[in-house]
């Protein structure tokens, strides 16, 4: 039984897809093509990029000292991030087949492509790779957690939440015990909207 909430969640999901497609179509005019997962720029664009490369000496001269001093703090998060990745990936590989939950495609979330930008120096490329990994991993973990929550506890929250994940629209209403007992097993297996 579809509700207004379900309708809104479907509209949001469709708008997100439309937004992604629109962003991608704008990028189609940016002077590059993707060939075998590699970004290839037109020669004129590649030359322009090289003209805007900031040399390392200039990069460090203009960098605020507080940014340089805080870099070790930012980079210290890489160790727990890698641990999170290892543990969640291990869980994902072992448990999803046991539960019959479709696996999450890692490459849909963790994307490394900014190293093709020749206007970035080596420090900027490393920083971009770190941000790509961290944000992609968080999105990957969120999708694994969302599918897990759908399997184990597909109940909407009573309290307001600031954001919802991709599976929330399938969840049952908070406080509806009869519907929960009646449809819990069906909801646990309701992954037919996921393209594998």
Helix content: 55-70%
Helical/strand content category: mainly alpha
Overall average residue pLDDT: 90
Query: How much β-strand is present in the residues?
Result: under 5%
Radius of gyration: 22 Å
- Biggest β-sheet: count, sense, barrel? 2 strands, antiparallel
Textual characterization of the structure:
The structure is a single chain. The chain contains 7 helices and 2 strands, in the order H-E-E-H-H-H-H-H-H. Helices cover 60% and strands 4% of the residues. A two-stranded antiparallel ribbon has the order 1-2. It starts with a helix and ends in an 8-residue tail after the last helix. The chain has one domain. With 196 residues, it is mainly alpha-helical.
Please supply descriptive tags for the structure shown above:
196 residues, mainly alpha, two-stranded antiparallel sheet, 4% strand, elongated
């Amino acid at each position: 039984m579809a509700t207004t909430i379900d309708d809104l969640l479907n509209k949001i999901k469709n708008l997100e897809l439309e937004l992604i497609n629109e962003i991608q179509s704008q990028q189609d005019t940016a002077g590059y093509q993707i060939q075998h997962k590699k970004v290839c720029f037109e020669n004129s664009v590649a030359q322009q990029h090289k003209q805007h490369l900031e040399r390392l000496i200039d990069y460090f001269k203009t960098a605020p000292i507080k940014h340089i001093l805080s870099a070790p703090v930012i980079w210290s998060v890489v160790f727990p991030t890698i641990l999170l990745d290892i543990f969640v990936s291990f869980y994902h590989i072992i448990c999803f087949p046991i539960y019959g939950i479709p696996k999450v495609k890692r490459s849909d979330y963790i994307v490394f492509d900014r190293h093709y930008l020749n206007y970035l120096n080596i420090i900027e490329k490393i920083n971009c790779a770190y941000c790509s990994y961290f944000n992609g991993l968080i999105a990957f973990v969120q999708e694994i957690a969302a599918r897990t929550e759908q399997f184990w506890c597909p109940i909407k929250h009573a309290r307001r939440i600031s954001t919802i994940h991709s599976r929330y629209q399938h969840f049952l209403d908070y406080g509806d015990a009869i519907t929960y007992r009646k449809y819990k097993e069906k909801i646990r297996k309701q992954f037919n909207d996921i393209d594998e």
